[in-house]
Amino acid sequence: MESKNTVVNKPTPMYRFQVWSSFVLSFSLMIIGIYHLPVEIWIKGYLVMGIIFTVGSCFTLAKTIRDDFESEKIEGKKYENS
Q1: CA angle centred on 32, ends 27 and 33, rounded to 5°
Q2: H-state helical runs in 1-82
Q3: Which residues of 16-30 are buried (b: 16+ CB within 10 A; e: fewer)?
Q4: Could you read off the pLDDT of 10-69 as tens digits, one per residue?
Q5: 30 within 8 A of 51, measured Cβ to Cβ
Q6: Which H or E element spans position 11?
Q7: What is the rounded CA–CA span in Å between residue 9 and residue 7?
Q8: Residue (of 79, 70, 77) closest to 4 by Cα position
Q9: Is the pTM for the entire model greater than 0.90?
Q10: Which own/partner contact pairs does 40-48 have at CB distance under 8 Å and 24+ positions apart?
Q11: In this structure, how many other beta carbons lie within 10 angstroms of the beta carbon of residue 41?
Q12: How far apart are CA 57 and CA 51, in angstroms?
């Protein structure tokens, strides 16, 4: 029985820092921009709600795509070992 080396690609700590810092910076600047808009408070609230729901759906979409990709890899290994 031959053993296969599995390579796990993990992001580097610097990449993780760049991803999280860009997310925090962009989200913060968007909230600050909405805060300084010269419009009524209900319009600002609507825009903030839209941003929060968009960010949440992006996280959910990314997780779903990753889960689908990982399940395809597992199914491929299952058929490969048969």
Answers
A1: 95
A2: 13-35, 41-80
A3: eeeeeeeeeeeeeee
A4: 889 999 999 999 999 999 999 999 999 999 999 999 999 999 999 999 999 999 999 999
A5: yes
A6: none
A7: 6
A8: 77
A9: no
A10: none
A11: 7
A12: 10
Tokens of 62: 């990314």
Residue type, 79: Y
The span from the CA of 12 to the CA of 53, in Å, is 29
Amino acid identity of residue 21, one-letter, is: S
Phi-psi region of 31 (alpha: psi -120 to 50; beta: other; left: phi over 0): alpha
Q: Which two tokens stand for residue 44?
A: 């600002």
Question: At residue 3, what are phi and psi to the nearest 5 degrees?
Answer: -95, 140
Residue 20 structure tokens: 């999280």
Per-residue tokens: 31: 């909230």
Structure tokens at 12: 């580097």
